[in-house]
Hints:
- The protein is α/β, with parallel strands linked by helices.
- It has a single domain, classed as 3-Layer(aba) Sandwich (Rossmann fold).
- The chain contains ten helices and eleven strands.
- The chain has helices at 18-29, 83-105, 147-165, 189-198, 217-229, 247-258, 268-278, 283-286, 294-299, 308-331, and strands at 9-13, 33-38, 48-50, 68-71, 113-117, 172-178, 180-182, 211-212, 214-216, 235-239, 245-246.
- A seven-stranded parallel sheet has the order 3-2-1-4-5-6-10, sandwiched between helices. Strands 7-9 form a two-stranded parallel ribbon. A two-stranded antiparallel sheet has the order 8-11.
- α1 (18-29) links the parallel β1 (9-13) and β2.
- The protein is globular and about 60 Å long.
- The chain starts with 8 loop residues before the first strand and ends with a helix.
Amino acid sequence: MSLPQPPLRVVIPGGAGHLGRILAGHLHFKGNSVTVLSRSGAVEPWPVVSWNGTDLDDWARELEGADVVINLAGRSVNCRYTAGNRREILESRVRPTELIGEAISRLHRPPRLWMNASTATIYRHSLDREMDEASGELGGGERDAPDTWRFSIEVARRWERAFFAAHTPGTRKVALRGAMVMSAEHGGTFDLLLRLVRFGLGGQAGFGNQYVSWIHEDDFVRALDYLIEHEEFEGPVNVASPNPVPNEEFMRTLRNVWGSRIGLPATNRMLEAGALFLRTETELILKSRRVVPGLLLKSGFEFQSPEWRFAAENLVGRWRRQRSERFFRRNS
């Protein structure tokens, strides 16, 4: 029987976004002391300290004596990859990472662990086999890969390079190569996919054979708990369900769970036109991410929602309950 762990001091730069609020809420609920560094100044049940992600300032004091730093800073990639947006996407990841490394290097009592967001997109477009940490092939050199795909991989590589180059000898470092986190919360990836299904547009994208790497929100926060507790982890770690599924199966399962018989497919040409209209990129849909959590599985981590159908059923149920609760509050 394991003894209860004492509360942790956790600092989350960039923790005011969708994923940051899920993680901060989970850690706060468990009784840990959570501080978020944010540009937004949002009001939360935990302290929110202002930072701009580009300069050392008073926020660096929050890292002194902290147990864990989890950096989630980075501008959304859901946009067109114009020259200006590319610059912001890259700088919003690399500069805060460099800055946190500089701040930690100056501390008298540095954090025991620094986890830095990365992305499963760092691996190549893979239809043929799974990509784990040991044998996975990094992307960027695929023949005929679109320029936008190569850009995303270059961002991921430079992001991790800045992280591991930081001189923080007293701090364990883990790069979180995360898959899409599926949450029932409004505005998340799952919410957007379910919206397509609800309006009869949730068919396969393109050929539908490209793999979707995903992870249920509960398994995501549990995996981070596990990485905090198990000090043998260091370096890149894939944070994804062990069962990525082809896009066609992924969307068909979601339609079946929702109870929808109609799911209009979208050809590559239709997706290109839609992405242009919505000011985004088709890479987010068409690149095959067949990523598996080799290190987590090898160490004995057990996923609560390893299969997409079970996860989809759980998330649809949560989504419906949350929508009912919002409706009741508005009308009470």
